[in-house]
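thought: fold this chain, then report.
action: predict
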Amino acid sequence: MVEVMDMRAARRIALGAQGFAAPRPSGRIDVRHFRRVMRTVGVLQLDSVNVLERSHYLLPFSRLGGYDRAALDAYTSHSGELFEYWGHMASLLPVGDYPLFRWRMASMEPWKRVRALEAEHPGYIDEVEEEVRRRGPLTVSDFADGGKRTGPWWGYGRGKIALEWLFATGRITARRGRQFTRVYDLTDRVLPREVRAGPAPDGETAQRELLVRAARHLGIATAADLADYYRLHVPTARRLVTELAGDGDLVPVRVDGWRDPAYLHPATVRARTSRGTALLSPFDSLIWDRARTERLFGFRYRIEIYVPRTERVFGYYVLPFLLDGGLVGRVDLKAHRSDGVLEVRAAHHEPGVEPGRVAEGMRAEIGRVASWLGLERVKVGRAGNLIRALRDAFDGRSRRRA
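observation:
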């Protein structure tokens, strides 16, 4: 008989799987904690937006609290324990997972710009690879025709197109240098030989393993949720999930209110309470699947970076606020580093929650973020249905009334 569970139990499982069941560490944060976070989430999405702090810094902060960002840089870029590839979008992944993505590298189909480049300049991509071999490691700016920066995105010159294709197919790899720039080098020079030269599973076997890992990282999920974690083909994933459940590698369950069947990893820990309190990056693996976030937490979330200012509902860079196991609010934050100010541009609470409680919890978390980023002052704006209660919390008025 398939187990049926309520939404509160499903939330506790999901939060526990993503590292929110235990309190944050109380001592100094070091590489052991970063490794634990990576074991927990499995994939760390990268994003260039830096209006507050880049996403791959925010995710560890939400689970660990304040830490030395230079120490994380050393771990992510120089430890040899991680590599960058298309995991869930551009992501950092454990180097031991490299064989699981070789099928993706091998099955890459040239996109339109690559086909045009190969047609117009035969042999150019091979020339770029040879230049990386001779001169590497290199950035796009090291190429005369790499591409000019246009706003927050790169214009795609020939060098950029070639480098991205070589990266996608695994012929070169990359790490992040200063200012978040990709630094490209030959895969043979970066990844350990035993990882590169060892046996790699075929595509179906690799996808089965990635789906099982997604179940461990998500805690509870539908087949579509599992596919999204590593961006797998959904129809293929549905078939493989059914097979995995039949083999006992996944456990089918039903969640009240969910239309589709859900699945647990056999080793899923069922937390009795939800302790998690955190501001979440828009690209945090707990919430990056917007449909699952809405289904699991009743929280509709869309990032509005690409929405015209006049059409935004909640703000430019809005972080969902997790309080004691529920997504109860959201806050638009901007770091003014040269002035030492963390600006709260807008704050909102969800329907049916007590604004004062949300404001007190959010005030404490915003204060922790400001301290971590070395910002001396928090400036509270005027937008949003929580902003007055949040301003009172910063001024201490809500505590005096209590």
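thought: worth noting. The longest helix spans residues 355-373.
final: tokens above.
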